[in-house]
Amino acid sequence: MLVAGALASRDDVFSWLTFLVTLLGAVAIQIGVNFANDVADAAKGADTGERIGPTRAVASGLISARQMWIGIGVAFGIAVGTGVYLISVAGPVIAVIGVASIVAALGYTNGPSPYGYRGWGEAFVFVFFGLVATVGARFVFDRTMPIGAWLAGIVMGLLATAILLANNIRDIETDAAAGKETLVVRVGREGGIAIFSASVAGAYVVVLLAVATDWLPLWTALSLLTLPLAMPLIRTIRTETAGPPLIGVLKGTARLQLIVALLLCAGILLDANL
């Protein structure tokens, strides 16, 4: 979303109202996804006392499943409300994106055959938290989808995928015991680590290619300065199996994505103003 806003600003089509409404909708969908995942994992027995990581609200009894579903309804209701405005600005394509996002969010861990339990969670994250979040957010400003937005979306998608992979590598034993066949459970710990490493490294490769082909401005190469943050994450996830270090990798990968996004924004805006 931040990168999309920077791209729109560079192209002189930025609107604060459109940006803030889109941001609100994106955050609402993110919250709805997390709430739906919490309540579904509790119902399916995936969140047990053996799980390593932050306390899950429903499984721990902090709130009831009914209360969580009310929260899900509120979150997606806000997303729908923002969508009404964005449809008026950018047309019916936004309705398609919004409906697909909500359906995908609910189907991730809910329903008779949740795809998050079938190894497709990473694909969902790459598409919706990478491509849709960047390209779709850029589209609302002037109904265009420039190549730079697609490439930036791939970078964000790869890092978002790495976040989920770090989470699922940490939870591989409890997920397998609960019948939650994440991609990591399917390919094994070593396979998951390899995909995590490739996702992080791939983000930097895409930045280099985008800069080399001039689809993203030279200044976005500033994001390569985060390599010293990325390498320890790959090293730790390859050598550690205990909970605390893996939680550190999860947090570090989320932090890495944020810093990369901020540096991409800075690079785009510097290019526009120099």
What this model shows, in words?
There is one protein chain. The chain has helices at 2-10, 16-43, 65-90, 93-107, 121-142, 147-170, 172-177, 183-212, 227-239, 243-273. With 274 residues, the chain is mainly alpha-helical. The chain has one domain (2-273). α2 runs antiparallel to α3 (65-90), α2 (16-43) packs antiparallel against α5 (121-142) and α4 packs antiparallel against α5. The longest helix is centred in the C-terminal third of the chain and has 31 residues, at 243-273. The two termini are 23 Å apart.
Question: What attributes does this structure have?
Answer:
mainly alpha, 10 helices, single chain, globular, 274 residues, 74% helix
Blueprint (SSEs and pairs):
Blueprint: H1 2-10, H2 16-43, H3 65-90, H4 93-107, H5 121-142, H6 147-170, H7 172-177, H8 183-212, H9 227-239, H10 243-273
The chain-level structural class is: mainly alpha
User: What percent of residues adopt helix (DSSP H or I)?
Assistant: over 70%
Count of alpha and pi helical runs: 10
Count every beta strand, where a strand is a DSSP E run of 2 or more residues: 0
Mean pLDDT: 90
Short description:
This protein is mainly alpha-helical and 274 residues long. It has helices at residues 2-10, 16-43, 65-90, 93-107, 121-142, 147-170, 172-177, 183-212, 227-239, 243-273. Helix content is 74%, strand content 0%.
